[in-house]
Design brief:
- By secondary structure, the protein is α/β, with parallel strands linked by helices.
- The protein is 35% helix and 20% strand.
- The strands form six sheets. A seven-stranded mixed beta sheet has the order 12-11-13-14-16-15-23, with helices on both faces.
- Strand 7 (130-134), helix 4 (140-145) and strand 8 form a beta-alpha-beta unit.
- The longest helix has 20 residues, at 221-240.
- It is globular and about 95 Å long.
């Protein structure tokens, strides 16, 4: 076969995998095809270990050097009924030999562990894709449970796919017959058999997975040995069976990244590391007051492991107690953080308003999920923007920062800390479930690349009265930032009143004076409006007339869609907001340069509402609230319509 090189349109992120070349082997040895990208989806019952399988394949892919992006997708129920559609859990991984931005629109390979997994995912699988099914689970009862009148493996409905029927359970049990485990215990390792098979198909390293299994089950060596045996059996099955005549190679993404040391990282892990780094750069202890809530709980879990960095974590009895403790820690001189999701923000709103009034640094990390109320705990959404902007009584402005990729969560955490510490204010950081659970390569920064966040606490009097006496005024402000001094309790001479009742300018005494309240309200707003944020950068190489403006986790799908359109000869500009309050100072001028502005959001148009109100620009919304991230092809189609319109 002649080697092929993919076209620019095919190389656009999210496109189908492209055959780049084929290595012919001697007779009796299987062929190896070289691809530039692959999208794999593991799907099965909640108890089948699909998330672990996906995590391990991702880790080995990261160590191999591919660029990658992942999309874990699992039900909210702790244990949905086995074999049912609501109980299907999946993990999608997109990896490539070049820079990519999304977990991909449609899988090239679907691994379906049971009929429910097949039925729940088949609509996303394009014709010609490979489907590996565990035939042992396609029993009459299992098929009826999900509405199959006949087995799709036999009725011709899968004729358009490259179907690989594999008795995964039987093969796993056979491989472990000497392990001493019961049949039920042995069956649990079938996900490792599947992982071994896929690792063979795509030439993934194996040493890391075997080391991981030994560590994970160190206290149960017989379980570790069984999983390793199943993993190796899956690899050997791929090597020897005639059903898999071809394996595939995806070369490392050697030119996709700047030089450095990389690791695979999820958004929540990156946030955790960013918080620790910020506390070290500020030379402050880190305090997390939190109540567990999906999808933010991983931050609490991770930070609890880092007491050696001066991190203190407090799992409170409820959301209100969590933020109350965090605000108390801020008053005491810590870099204070509280983590939550949308429902928790509603409960924390009064204390956030108190932090606005007290003018203390506090980081509020909102890992957004589908709402309202309990909503969709394990699905993603961007619908808390207006809540973060306005969800408090009175005029209580709060800065808002939003990361755009899992790795960017590290930098966003540091930026949120910079603003909070410099301007003495609570700060919202809006991540979401897609970023929190998704992962990508992250370049570990050098310490000297991180900003200096050191703060100076008040040490003594800062104001001279008319009679010449020196006193401490807790609300005397820095003329540049309008930040008030940070006075640590117990510092001699710095005693001052604190609380939520309106303060008198300067002295901090309780004040009901109308003019003073007007002044303080305007001053607090001016402090937020004056925060130093970078100008908005616009990617516009061809003087386009249409601008697509995004924020948060829509960055990957938007950028992938823009790449597709440009590859097809279209002219379109792109800009992405990190700072949502205050907006970059040049945003208004940027918007006015374009005839059409399109704002894709995973809500019903919240940023678009703010942009229209503030800049009187007829911004067009493109919205989705189905609990899943945008697909690149979907956005490309919508943006093409905007360009043509």
């Amino acid at each position: 076969m002649t080697s092929q090189v993919s076209s620019p349109a095919e190389q656009a992120d999210g496109a189908d995998s492209t055959l780049v070349g084929e290595q012919r082997k001697p007779a009796g040895v299987k062929d190896v095809h070289r691809l530039d990208r692959v999208i794999i989806r593991f799907a099965g019952d909640s108890g089948d270990g699909m998330q672990l399988t996906g995590d391990r394949f991702t880790s080995e892919t990261a160590s191999f050097g591919n660029d990658l992006s992942t999309l874990p997708n699992f039900p909210a129920e702790i244990r949905a009924p086995a074999g049912t559609l609501p109980g299907v859990s999946s993990f999608q991984l997109h990896f490539a030999d070049h820079d990519i931005l999304t977990p991909g629109d449609a899988p090239n390979v679907l691994v379906a562990m049971n009929p429910a997994a097949l039925k729940a995912n088949i609509a996303d699988v394009p014709r010609g894709a490979e489907i590996i099914v565990n035939t042992d689970e396609f029993t009459k009862r299992a098929l009826q449970k999900v509405g199959y009148a006949a087995s799709p493996l036999d009725d011709g409905s899968l004729d358009g796919y490259s179907l690989h029927p594999v008795p995964l359970t039987t093969l796993t049990v056979e491989a472990l017959k000497e392990s001493g485990l019961s049949r039920k215990e042995a069956e649990r390792s079938k996900n490792m058999f599947a992982l071994g098979l896929l690792s063979w198909m795509y030439h993934r390293p194996t040493e890391g997975t075997e080391k991981f299994l030994k560590s994970k089950f160190a206290k149960k060596p017989e379980i570790a040995a069984a999983n390793i045996a199943a993993f190796r059996a899956g690899w050997n099955f791929g090597e020897t069976t005639e059903d898999f005549a071809v394996s595939y190679e995806v070369a490392p993404a050697a030119t996709a990244f700047p030089t450095g040391t990389y690791r695979n990282i999820s958004g929540n892990l990156a946030l955790s590391y960013g918080l620790v780094a910020a506390s070290r750069q500020a030379d402050l202890p880190l305090f997390l007051g939190s109540y567990p809530i999906t999808p933010a709980s991983d931050i609490l879990h991770e930070l609890s492991r880092h007491k050696n960095f001066g991190v203190r974590t407090f799992q409170a009895e409820d959301e209100i107690a969590g933020i109350g403790a965090a605000l108390g820690a801020a008053f005491g001189g810590s870099l204070a953080v509280t983590t939550t999701s949308g429902p928790g923000v509603a409960l924390k709103s009064e204390t956030i308003g108190l932090a606005v009034s007290m003018e203390l640094p506090l980081l509020v990390l909102d890992i957004q999920r589908g709402g309202p109320s309990t909503g969709l705990p394990t699905k993603t959404e961007q619908a808390d923007l207006l809540q973060a902007m306005f969800g408090r009584n009175g005029e209580a402005p709060v800065p808002i920062v939003a990361p755009c990729t899992p790795a960017d969560c590290f930098d966003a955490a540091i930026e949120a800390a910079r603003i909070a510490l410099t301007y003495r204010t609570p700060v919202f950081l809006l991540s979401d479930g897609y970023l929190a659970n998704g992962s990508e390569p992250w370049r570990i920064p050098d310490i000297d690349e991180l900003p200096d966040l050191t703060v100076q606490f008040a040490q003594g009097p800062n104001h001279t009265l008319d009679d010449g006496s020196e006193v401490f005024w807790p609300y005397k402000r820095d003329p540049q930032t309008l930040a008030r001094p940070w006075a640590i309790p117990g510092t001699p001479g710095l005693e001052h009143r604190i609380g939520g009742i309106e303060k008198q300018d300067g002295t901090g005494n309780i004040s009901y004076d109308p003019a003073n309240h007007d002044f303080m309200v305007r001053t607090r707003q001016a402090k937020i409006d004056g925060i130093d944020v970078p100008d908005l950068e616009v990617d516009d190489p061809h003087d386009a007339r249409t601008l697509v403006l995004g924020w948060g986790s829509t960055y990957g799908p938007i950028t992938a869609a823009v790449r597709r359109l440009r590859g097809a000869g279209e002219s379109i500009a792109q800009a992405h907001l990190r700072h949502l309050n205050p907006f970059p100072r040049n945003l208004g001028a940027v918007l006015k340069r374009y005839d059409r502005v399109v704002i894709p959001e995973m809500n019903l148009g919240q940023l678009a509402t703010l942009v229209r109100a503030k800049y009187l620009v007829d911004a067009h919304s493109y919205n989705q609230v189905n609990g899943m991230p945008f697909k690149a092809e979907q956005l490309a189609t919508a943006l093409k319509e905007a360009i043509d319109g």
